[in-house]
Amino acid sequence: MRTLLGLTASSVDDPSKRTDRHVPAHDLLGDPEEKQFRHQQVRTVDSMVESMRTYSHIAVAPEAEREEILARAREYLSGLPDSRGVFVRPLICEAVRTIRV
After folding, report:
1. What is the pLDDT of residue 2?
2. What are phi and psi of 96, to 5 degrees?
3. Are 88 and 41 in contact (CB under 8 A)?
4. How many domains does the chain have?
5. Residue 85: which region, alpha, beta or left (left: phi > 0; alpha: psi -120 to 50)?
6. Which helix (H) or strand (E) holds 97?
7. CA distance linking residue 23 with residue 33, whole number of Å
8. pLDDT band with cut points at 50, 70 and 90 for residue 20
9. HSE-up of residue 62 (Cα within 13 Å, Cβ side)
10. Which one of 25, 55, 78, 93 is most buried, counting C-beta atoms within 10 A?
């Protein structure tokens, strides 16, 4: 299945392969607590592509590669069924905290 995240990998970084979210143990810290906060944004294809232009792994990629990535993203987003160019982008903020013991 094609995903937008998979289509935006660059020679600088591939966000879809980031898996290490380990919080190292420390004598002065308690166990980490994790929580997710969900939000949504209503986006157009153009607003999403322009936002993606600011993602660090895309912004620092060579210009030709950057434009190719954004063109792939635009094609993917434009082909979403029933989007009519507007869609809801789900956002998930993952927070981790620990308390000093």
Report:
1. 61
2. -130, 135
3. yes
4. 1
5. left
6. strand 86-97
7. 10
8. low
9. 3
10. 55
pLDDT of 40-92, one tens digit each? 999 999 999 999 999 998 999 999 999 999 999 999 888 887 767 788 888 88
- Amino acid present at 6: G
Assess if residue 22 is contained within a domain: no
Q: Is residue 64 part of a domain?
A: yes
Single-letter code of the amino acid located at 25: A
Q: Residue 73 burial by CB count (10 A; 0-12/13-18/19+): exposed, middle or buried? A: buried
DSSP 3-state of 22: coil
Quick check: is 7 in a domain? no
Token pair 């905290």 is found at: 97
Range of the domain at 69: 28-97
Taking the CA atoms of residue 79, residue 86, residue 46 and residue 15 in that order, the dihedral angle to the nearest 10 degrees is: -70
